[in-house]
Amino acid sequence: MSKGYIESHTHAGMIPYAGFQAMADKGINKAMSCAIVLAARHAESYFDHFRMIEGFYRKLAASFGIELFSAVGVHPAGIPDDWPRVIESLPDFISSDTVVAIGEVGMNQNSTLEKDVLRAQLEVAKSCNVPAIIHTPKENRPAVVDEMLNIAGRVGVDPTLLVIDHAHLDIIGQINDFGAVPGLTMRVQNLTADVLVEHLDLFARGMMNSDYSNIMPNDPAGFVDAVEYMQARQVDENIINALARDNAARLYHI
């Protein structure tokens, strides 16, 4: 396949200089940076983060030939005390041409606070008619995903605009039954290329990503290794194109 891959879920503020170079070298020319402010205490932390990604990091990525887009939202790993102020600001940030989604949002603990924050952000996504990128936790995943999908259903979010990330065999049935888009985080801790290929029919509607962060061992262009794995096993080129580029391009209009 021709390159021009889309990294559909990363965190630009955590990517080192060499990481952007690695992304470009492996054929990634567009990327989606999701919001995350670990242990945030104040809404201003998110406002500064949104501006930093859309400004400084977008220019840095462009110096490597990568067009950087972003999503805005309150990550469950950092919900500030004054989180409603962030929610109120989201439509203004979304009005930018380079901010194309709400995310990364979701739940880790299935707490009342997390449910309230998620619901409020899905309501913004619905009113602004933009995709929402949903984080899934490491533990108790089917139950938490079920609750998040119930919230999305009550809000009335268009399922085709809902990305359920870090999909694996334990939750892919729930994602597909709801009609949401599977986010396929390709790394040892999440979905591996051999599992993807073995169950390609389950994951074919998805979007591959590396979900790079500097808090665990991973590769800012890691999903391209999965592309090469599929190519070596002669997976249909149209399927590879969809997973590595086309599904994300269509969803985010990028």
From TrEMBL:
InterPro entries, sorted: Metal_Hydrolase, TatD-like, UCP005295
Presence of keyword Zinc: no
Keyword Acyltransferase: no
Source superkingdom: Bacteria
GO MF annotation: an example: hydrolase activity, acting on ester bonds
Membrane spanning residue stretches: none
Keywords noted in UniProt: Hydrolase
Protein name: Putative metal-dependent hydrolase with TIM-barrel fold
Source organism: Desulfoscipio gibsoniae DSM 7213
